[in-house]
Amino acid sequence: MMVHVLAGCRLMVFVVEGLAVAGSLSGWVIAAGVLPFIYVIVLSLVARHENKRSEPFPVPVIPRMIVGISLLDGLMMAFGANVWWLLEGVVGAVLTLGGQRYVCGGGLKALSN
User: Is the whole model's pTM more than 0.70, yes or no?
Assistant: First the structure.
């Protein structure tokens, strides 16, 4: 159930922004909100599956999927607004990837070790 709440927050970012900027919701804003909604649900389900495995995935899937959020946002903004937003998405992805070297992503389990 919490998966839907987290994904709903990503959807509502686009809804609130669309209403604030245009005063109404266009089909583009709805589509741009649904894509991250689906992406976050898939990311969350993959993370749950990895936690149930006896061994983690051989490659760091979840950190790479988190990097993908910035790329997805940049792509959507590039198509919907201005192509320069793609650069912002790439910069966000690179910064996220670089930051993952310094920030522990294991949650409470990592803190207890």
Answer: yes
DSSP-derived secondary structure letter, 88: H
pLDDT tens per residue across span 59-82:
889 999 999 999 998 998 898 888
Q: Are residues 43 and 61 in contact, defined by beta-carbon separation less than 8 angstroms?
A: no
Does residue 105 contact residue 63 with C-beta atoms inside 8 Å? yes
Pull the structure tokens for residue 75.
């792509």
C-alpha to C-alpha distance for 12 and 20, rounded to whole angstroms: 12
Residues 6+ positions from 60 with CB-CB distance below 8 Å? none
Q: Both tokens of residue 53?
A: 């495995």
Half-sphere exposure of 97 (CA within 13 A, CB side): 14
How far from each other are the two terminal CA atoms of the chain, in whole angstroms?
A: 28
Cα distance between residue 33 and residue 11, in whole Å: 4
At position 75, the amino acid (one-letter code) is: L
- Predicted confidence at residue 105, as pLDDT, reads 61
